[in-house]
Fold:
Amino acid sequence: MRITALAGGVGGARFLRGLRTHLDRSPDLADAELTIIGNTGDDISLFGLRVCPDLDTLLYTLGGGIHEGQGWGRADESHRVQGELAAYGAVPQWFALGDLDFGTHIVRSQWLGQGVSLTEVTARLAARWGLPDQRITLLPMSDSPVETHVVVEDEDGQRAIHFQEWWVRHQASIPAQRFQAVGMDRATAAPGVLDAIRTADVVLLPPSNPVVSIGIILGVPGVRDALRGSAAPVVGVSPLIGGMPVRGHADACLRAIGVESTTAAVAGLYEDFLDGWLVSTEDEASLRLARAAVRGRPLLMSDADAAAEIAGAALELALELKGA
Ligand code: GDP
Ligand code: CA
Structure:
């Protein structure tokens, strides 16, 4: 079986690690192949290095190197390089980069500088983290740089800032007026991305941010059409529980695009291709969707086992819709 998933960072990575665990525990599913299409709209150049936060969170989580408490960055990390940069007055200082993490950004930037595509760079990083051994392929959504910028207005007037500055530095506290995926007009889907959707048996949307993770991937030319045209059932997992994001500021992102912070409204963003929608038990009763089948269950990924059970439920719904 071929499973394809679209993913952002922490929510996507925890869900997909759970999915791999679920597959490995199911004798008839253990040889399933998982292809992950990762959001690169969060990417940013810092200190001359290319940083891909969502791809790295996926690599570290699936490869067993993640800082579990934070959900991002490396376990057993130190910050000596960042301290040295601060001593030189180098900016920005608001984006935390650990010493081990710097290794990833250095080698990625070196390879990109040699003309290696982000797809190939990501494959090399994934090899180090053992993803191929787990039958996982991690693809960036695009090889061309796309950066999410946020149009904000405060006492300094209206301006666009990088998504990371809005999210990390300002904690989404400045109201966003809109998001711009800078570079998307010149972007194409990375090799293998559209095929992974077209040839999948099942497509899953983890509970990633619907606006700045999944929403950005859906903006890559051809992705949305491939999902609409896909014969495979597309099943999503709600990132909202009782209308609130479990972590992060998805509510602020939804507000910026004029969408209510409800699980029904999030499903509405996927309406043209969504076949199944897994929601939290408390959201189930009030929810009727025109096209998609709704299923309710506890959706808090409180630990790896809980994530595996949630992923298993999403897959089960997809297989049911497939009539398998
Ligand atoms: P990011 O790129 O690190 O922000 O990660 P994602 O975009 O992949 O996922 C962020 C989303 O995951 C947020 O909107 C959260 O509400 C959602 N999320 C995080 N943990 C959980 C959880 O345990 N259950 C559910 N249902 N959603 C979660
Ligand atoms: Ca992200």
About this structure: Residues 288 and 294 are 7 Å apart (CA to CA). Residues 8-9, 42, 53-54, 213 surround calcium ion (ligand 2) (CB under 6 Å). The radius of gyration is 19 Å. The first helix runs from residue 10 to 25.
